[in-house]
Predict the 3D structure of the following.
Amino acid sequence: MTCPTNLLPYAIAAIRRGWSVFPLRTRAKTPVRGFTDWERHATRSEDAATAHWGKHPAHNLAIATGPSGLIVIDLDVPKDGEGPPPEWDRPGITTGADVLAALAEDHAPDNSWMETFSVTTRRGGTHLYYAAPENAAYRNTAGKLGWLIDTRATGGYVVGPGSYVADTEGRGGYEINNPTASAAPLPSWLATLLEPARRRPVTSGQVHQALANRPGLATYVTRALRGEVERVLSAKEGHRNHTLNAAAFAVGTLIGAGALPKHLAEDELTNAALQIGLEPDEIEATIHSGLQAGIRRPRGAAA
């Protein structure tokens, strides 16, 4: 796909689907000046879109997922030299699409989850567009579903179809795969997996169950995880986010050693962070960053 000269038709098409749009910089993924508060500035007005893209036809298109009532599953591809974490180091798992397919094998009743509006991204990934359930409280996630899978919901946006991005990670366009498809309702199995952690409390018994095939590690890992959770719960105001990051790093070293499933650690830390009053978006980003840093430095004692 070559760089388009006029994004207005794409903006109008998105609006006619009932989605809220706003402009991004030409060949970039960042909002133009004056549109940084995208949830407030995004529009469903064809007149407003025509006025903007009539003057700036090469500005890229963004779709504000929250105001549009969308949850977009972002299936990425690995960057050069990037390999899967231990829990996804399996035959046939090389991309976010592979991870989602593996999850579907375990949770989905059929393949209907694939029948929805989708866009191929510039690096060969995929955006799957789903209509959010009514009164849903879903927000952005990073890696919650698995390796190379993010989601965009309330508080987020995606680069829209027709856009062209060129930056240090590569260049390319965003192309619609199935123009006549609509955004299907979010499948119930995905809705369950994306539920906020406060709805899915994890007990130490689940940790022991997950480590049943390695009984020698069960007590050690459970105590280590409980200690980091207590560390978060006792964090003093002004140091809570830093403490959460440090705890996530420590737990990440266990995940990197293959001694603890990532989703259990995420839920335990998230529950603790919610209890001390940190904001969900802040929690998600901090835990993801800390865990990934720890995973890259696996704990030798647990190997």
